């Protein structure tokens, strides 16, 4: 008897819990997507404009709590009472209202049913799952939807633009090498500091990016210019060393002029050499070069190597590319040579390009262009092309002479070095072959 | 609240009533449901209107009932020229002693426990109203003098759904006084064969007494003590309310809905059915079982519904389908499961 009562009251309680939970869930799930939409929009805005996302989580949970309280207030008037639950069990199990009467003490409690007790309700999975899944999707969108900001959007950007970091590393490198006049570096350093001291939110503004790129470009070009001047100086120095003794005054004069020209560039460029190195070079008299001891020569050679090394560290392995050395978008030095053209366009050496190695024509063997039938050659035809180093006998070099495009004249038997194209023409050709 | 009757009394009453049903089934073959409803109607102290074609056993049913219950039985064949006095009784001038005469009331056929009003719709409204007053009040008034009818008093009226020319259909207000309106359906071939095999024309079947008049009175008292749970009463109230136009979808086309008397009749009939089934409380199932005979003749359809071919019976069925036993606001997160 007591067991029967316990059984049916327990069944009634289970039904009440199920029904009342459903009453609670209905308004909750109805409003949940709207709340999640609000949170997702808020999250997106914070992500887009760099706001702090941390408080959103707390607000979200607080909102859920308020939503649950509201749902309770809304749903409680529909909650199932025990008499209603027992009447429902009566109806669904064809008990002829025995439970209702028994609960009032009118009749004894009926025996538990051998079959499972039915309550006539089943969960509406569509109504339950759709708002829930929708809410999850909305929240996921709010958290994952790209907003056009860098991944480190929380609290602004963490890293400075590449151009600024690259310029900074170059400046640091030049400072370590101690080959540049510190005052000259100070100008670049000041501009760099101005860029670095901006607010992180302004780092990636258009004007800042342009300023950073400009700084990097100027620094690169300055180093490139210094490298060329150093190369010219070193070349002149090498020639001076190799001059036969006694050297002709014209040769010494020409070398001296070359050195002075390079020295002027090193002194008046944006990145002048430091005073110590500069004074060493200035004090060097070509006529007395032969009188320098081996140690002095090595010292000078080291000075060149040190200065050149600083430039090579920035310009990279293609530093010897000379004027063809350009900086790509990533700040890397790139030796831009004419391309092959055609549908497989891209980097490559054009035929007949003067270089140390023979031009690669895409075949497996190295070829040499030459006109076999010289009798049919017309004016302007290429008579032949040779590769490799010019075997110049420096001992027979009488020094450079200005004669139009001819940079170097020689006596009979001497090779004549001629620049066939002006820099403008060379650039046009490069563009064409690219 | 009346104290609940002991279970053994209910069981005993239920057994007797079922025995009565079985006995009447030997008189009226193939009409088990009709017989049960007639018994339930009697236990509810209600009057019953039987509608059906001639020869289906309506009179035999009334006769059998009276014999099985040892009730005084009278039959009145209603005709257009039947006068109220013909059924209530008339004062007759009697000579008590020489020179001394006095009006003495001579009781009519209504003075019986069970009155069969055959073809009630053929009598004039005047006579009908006299009968209906007796049904409602339990007494008749003749020449200003009231005469109490014997108890229990039941009227089983019949009417023929055909040959309606020259009849006086019962007004709705008078129909409302009948607890049940039951339709007597024709028998199938198997039942007819059974009738042919066991009955002979012109010979009344032998019916044994099932219980005494006193026992019947105790059953009537017992039925009143059956417990009607509040949820069931609420269900009855909602059903009756929903029968009115505009208060439910099923009531579309209804001109007038059921009266509060219908609600009382539903409750009484549900309790009687519970007793018949041997239970001490009425239930939703009891209400559903008696809803059609209780409500069918109390609801009036408008002409559009009638033109559409709707009947009050179909309307009551729709009403039972539409109105749930419990008025629960089921949240959309739940759905009604299919129950066997």
What does this 3D model show about the protein?
The complex is a heterodimer of chains A (434) and B (340). By secondary structure, chain A is mainly alpha-helical. Chain A has a two-stranded antiparallel ribbon. In chain A, strands 4-5 form a two-stranded antiparallel sheet. Mean pLDDT of chain A is 76; it is low at 400-409. Chain A has 13 helices and five strands. Chain A has helices spanning 2-49, 54-75, 82-92, 98-103, 125-144, 162-177, 182-196, 200-203, 206-242, 249-268, 275-282, 294-315, 423-433; strands spanning 121-123, 325-327, 333-335, 406-408, 417-418. Chain B is of the alpha/beta class and 340 residues long. Chain B has helices at residues 7-25, 32-43, 58-68, 84-88, 125-137, 172-175, 189-198, 213-224, 230-242, 260-276, 284-295, 303-307, 312-322; strands at 48-52, 73-77, 89-97, 100-107, 114-118, 139-142, 145-148, 154-159, 180-184, 254-256, 300-301, 334-336. In chain B, the strands form four sheets. A five-stranded parallel sheet of chain B has the order 2-5-8-1-9. In chain B, a hairpin with a 2-residue loop joins strand 3 (89-97) and strand 4. In chain B, helix 10 packs across helix 11. The longest helix of chain B has 19 residues, at 7-25. Chain B is globular and about 90 Å long. The mean pLDDT of chain B is 85. Chain A binds chain B through residues 18-19, 22-23, 25-26, 29, 75, 78, 80, 83-84, 87-88, 90-92, 94-98, 100-101, 104, 106-107, 118-124, 127-128, and chain B through 4, 227, 229-232, 274, 277, 279-286, 325-326, 328-337, 339. Strand 1 (121-123) of chain A pairs antiparallel with strand 12 of chain B.
